[in-house]
Amino acid sequence: MNQQASSPPHKIIGVAVIENNSGQILIDRRRPEGVMGGLWEFPGGKMEPGETVTECIEREIKEELGINIEVGELLIIIEHTYTHLKVTLIVHMSKHVSGVPQPIECDEVRWVHLDELSQFEFPEANTQIISALKQYKALTNIF
């Protein structure tokens, strides 16, 4: 991959695919005025210096949605370059532990079933998360 002199900034982002006891997945909609505004996403945020991925995900979910989660196994790591930003998404399966999700730093939150995800518009990199999640669910539902 060629590095250009004016390559976009790079962010490492911890992402949670949060499930509740009913098997639903939590998604949130970005605020309209921001980058990729109005699109849906799996919640998470930028890692701070000295922070582990697990710490990042737990902190971001508490700050953005006001809930507590248990971060589980790694689902996928995605490297994606948008025109304005390069991201490394480190995505972990997570379980909802306590609290009612609130749209603190987003426009809206929803619990949805896996087969409903196609009804929502996600940023391009999130399509890989959805594919990995479908494969993960297909494998874990076998047992």
UniProtKB/TrEMBL annotation:
A Pfam match is NUDIX_4
What UniProt keywords are attached to this protein's entry? DNA damage, DNA repair, DNA replication, Hydrolase, Magnesium, Metal-binding, Mutator protein
Residues binding 8-oxo-dGTP are 30, 41-44, 126
Residues covered by the Nudix hydrolase domain: 8-137
Write one Gene Ontology MF term: 8-oxo-dGDP phosphatase activity
What are the EC numbers? 3.6.1.55
| Cofactor(s) recorded in Swiss-Prot or TrEMBL | Mg(2+)
- Source organism, top-level taxon: Bacteria
The catalysed reaction is: 8-oxo-dGTP + H2O = 8-oxo-dGMP + diphosphate + H(+)
| Binding positions for Mg(2+) per the UniProt entry | 44, 64
Does this entry carry the keyword Cell cycle? Answer: no
What is one GO biological process annotated to this record? DNA repair
InterPro entries given in the database record: Mutator_MutT (IPR003561), MutT-like (IPR047127), MutY_C (IPR029119), Nudix_hydrolase (IPR020476), NUDIX_hydrolase-like_dom_sf (IPR015797), NUDIX_hydrolase_CS (IPR020084), NUDIX_hydrolase_dom (IPR000086)
Q: Which family does it belong to?
A: Belongs to the Nudix hydrolase family.
Q: What is this protein called?
A: 8-oxo-dGTP diphosphatase
Species source reads Dulcicalothrix desertica PCC 7102
Q: What is the lineage of its organism?
A: Bacteria, Bacillati, Cyanobacteriota, Cyanophyceae, Nostocales
